[in-house]
Write a structure and sequence with these properties.
about 450 residues, alpha+beta, 3 domains, transmembrane helix, transmembrane, YycH/YycI_2, Regulatory protein YycH domain-containing protein
């Protein structure tokens, strides 16, 4: 036993030493990082196209104890969302029924004690959920909308599917559940942030009730060569055979028929338009499925890509990168991927950058104030609270000052102000405006 313990200690010390040496080499070898990004970024580093069940998973887990105290939980050693997905996919859910809730008692249902909540950033349909969690769904129930699943964790044969936007919901019967397995996973969480749900401008919003400090990250990024997308999206066309137009930092490729691709070299984004066929996606389920199918055309969707937003009126679906359950902002002005299913065709916007390898951060994140304090500070700075429609804790994407190949992810609050997502720091450092913005 003594020899085994000694060998274990020696192995651990060796692993730590190797880790320290590699970290030192990464951050001191400037020549490696100062090379053009295309030198180290090859398509082989990207993951294969994701399954629809991965893209449309919940992004946040909230638990409540017997006293009603709520926490956002995360495990940096295990993906809890994936663990919940595997567990619930083995359950049997059936018989959806409309719940008798309204705007007055909605928060009571949301904030109930001894419960697990799986939260989506925006509404999805029960049909998409059923496909993701391997459940059967009747045709009449396919278009039911919700963004929150609540599962009582003590003893239950029911789960609740709630729609924050309309403050409605439906319940389903649950069989073959294993609540003990869920509780065991939740008990292993490495991060617990105290929260509560409150109404803000008549919409439920998540408030962090203590100072927030989450991990700051730096990532090596992968950059796809734009000409690869020219070939894949324009039906295998040779870029040299296409009609090409250069205007400033924009290059436009046209196949001479119904497809075009525009490369923005300055912002590292691509816009693809395909008007070769009409799009008949009219229901929310059809639009979300269409969004995924269009996303799959990129060929290499990153492993951290998640559904973020859906706008039925414009038939637009937004996907973002996620790190430790938090959305990444400022990668582009629209997210990571934006799909618009027009009646005449499809419009696809996406970034050529994806997060790849996490690196040691050169500094720790500054603690953020409570959500209420942040709102009070914005109000004191002159911002009208009625112009803020939503807010989230997320990561701010910025290029590392020492290397264009490295992205720094700094945790901060993001507020949707006049229709545009802006960081807490950005709002405090600018003059309040009443001009309408576009979603980003």
């Amino acid at each position: 036993m003594k020899i085994s313990h000694l060998l274990l200690k020696i192995s651990l010390m060796a692993m730590i030493a190797v880790s320290l040496v590699l970290s030192w080499l990464i951050w001191t070898n400037n020549a490696r990082f100062q090379r053009n990004t295309t030198d180290v970024m090859t398509p082989k580093m990207q993951t294969e196209t994701k399954n629809v069940e991965e893209v449309y998973l919940p992004t946040q887990i909230i638990t409540s104890n017997a006293n009603g105290e709520q926490y956002v939980v995360y495990n940096n050693k295990e993906n809890l969302i994936d663990a919940m997905h595997k567990q619930i996919s083995q359950w049997q859910l059936s018989d959806p029924h409309k719940m008798t809730i309204n705007s007055k008692n909605y928060l009571t249902t949301v904030n109930q004690s001894s419960a697990l909540s799986l939260v989506y950033p925006r509404n999805i349909t029960y049909s998409i959920f059923a496909k993701t969690f391997k459940q059967k769904v009747a045709k009449a129930d396919r278009q039911r909308l919700f963004n929150r699943i609540i599962i009582p964790t003590k003893h239950s044969s029911v789960a609740y599917f709630l729609d924050d936007q309309h403050k409605t919901g439906f319940s389903v019967k649950v069989k073959k559940e294993n609540l003990a397995a869920l509780r065991a996973r939740l008990n292993d969480a490495t991060m617990r942030l105290p929260v509560t749900e409150k109404l803000f401008n008549n919409q439920p919003q998540l408030y962090y009730t203590s100072a927030v400090q989450v991990t700051q990250y730096s990532y090596l990024v992968s950059k796809q060569n734009p000409t690869d997308f020219v070939t894949s999206l324009l039906s295998g066309s040779d870029p040299s055979a296409l009609e090409t137009k250069e205007q400033g930092h924009i290059t436009t490729y046209n196949d001479g028929t119904y497809k075009s691709l525009q490369v923005d070299h300055q912002n590292a984004t691509i816009e693809f338009e395909d008007y070769s066929s009409d799009v008949l996606a009219a229901t929310p389920t059809a639009i979300l499925n269409g969004g995924y199918k269009t996303l799959a055309k990129i060929g290499n969707a990153p492993g951290n890509m998640r559904y973020f937003d859906y706008e039925h009126k414009t038939r637009t679906v937004i996907y973002r990168s996620y790190v430790e359950g938090l959305p990444v902002f400022n990668q582009t002005d629209f997210g990571a991927v934006k799909v618009q299913l027009l009646s005449t065709g499809v419009k696809l916007n996406f970034s050529v950058y994806t997060l790849q390898v996490p690196l040691p951060a050169d500094s720790t994140a500054t603690p953020l104030p409570t959500t209420q304090t942040a709102l009070d500070n914005l109000a004191a700075a002159g911002y009208d609270m009625h112009d803020i429609s939503s807010f989230k804790l997320g990561y701010h994407w910025s290029v590392n000052s020492s290397s264009a190949s490295v992205i720094d992810l700094t945790p901060t609050y993001y507020f949707k102000y006049n229709g545009k997502w802006q960081s807490y720091e950005q709002l405090l450092n600018t003059t309040p405006s009443t001009d309408e913005g576009s979603a980003s």
